[in-house]
Amino acid sequence: MPLHVGYTVISLVMIGDRIRLSGYWTLAAAALLTAGLFLFYSSRLASDLAERERQRMLLWADAVAEVLSATDETSVKFPMRILEDDLGIPALLVGDDGDIIMSRNIDIDSLSGHDPAVVESVFNNGNEIKIETEPGVVYRVCYGDSALLCGLRFYPYIELCVITFFLVITYFAIRVSHKADQNRIWVGLSKETAHQLGTPISSLMGWMECLRADASKMSVPEVAVEMEHDVMRLADVASRFYKIGTRPVLVQIDLSSLIDSVADYMRRRVSSGIVIEVNLPESNVCVQGSAELLRWMLENLMKNAADAMEGSGKITIDLRHDGKTGAVIEITDTGKGIPLKKWKSIFQAGYTTKGRGWGLGLTLARRIVVQYHRGSIAVVSSEIGRGTTFRIMLP
After folding, report:
1. pLDDT tens for each residue of 264-315
2. What is the pTM of this model?
3. How far is it, in rounded angstroms, from Cα 349 to Cα 59?
4. Under DSSP, is residue 91 helix (H, G, I), strand (E, B) or coil?
5. Which of 166, 221, 277, 387 could lock 334 by a disulfide, CB 3.0 to 4.6 Å apart?
């Protein structure tokens, strides 16, 4: 039996590791895809902007040619307006002898002389437009990237670094969160195991004392029957923990009989001030499932409901058959209710409102319903001070 429990814990941790690893790969793939899209889109924008700047520099070079070959001032008014327009693009007009004739958006004093090699080194991309004003006289317009284009070229890499930084932060945050969840699962399962095994073990110890006592009012056969009940309960607990760590075999079960049996079991274990009412359809409702796990799930929900009512109130279990989804179970209590913002977080490991609880009851219930029976479980209504309704849907 301890081996079953240990196997359960190891199985849950391994499943958690697989989920965590899958989550990391998904996160990394999403980040790489996002970065790739940004790089592609930014590259397209940079290419389009570079082509636009080249077209503007061609127009600027044509204006330079018009000015250099003009014979009177009236014919250069329009070209001069183009030359005076600040395109925001660094440019040099270089004569055929290598002298710098004109500069735009460049600190000419930073250039060491008029050495053509220095001029060429100003622009790493080597953009150049040749102008021939007359046969044998060639000028060159050398231009570089504007500040906007330079920023656009480097922007995706900066963004990639930012995405990588946040990806690393997220990775470590998930690891820390996973370790905390893992610790809660280990501690919670240990507590749940002790709780599940404690009652029948205490009962067995009591029956053993009865057997030892000469004044026992019960006969040995009667004690043996009661001890057999407790041993069967221990077997059920071991079976539950074993099946929660493995994929259970689903068989045809009658939910009507199962709910009736769980209700009878819980009536003997809750406060006398709590009424348990069961509403079943006229015909039996059958599903493919694991009776032990579904019984465990129902017990956990009913225990939570009883705790929420603090010794007085009513638990109502309604079962109906839905032709579209299958079986529908609704468990309603008249307890203290659950705030709307907590409706989803109550199924997370470690969530509890009880000082003595470990927050695994609803986590196990959700695992049983969703992962093993392909169903759903959710809070459908809750009002503070009035009560809560859980709905379980089983296909």
Report:
1. 888 877 888 999 999 999 888 899 998 888 988 998 899 889 888 988 999 9
2. 0.49
3. 68
4. strand
5. 387
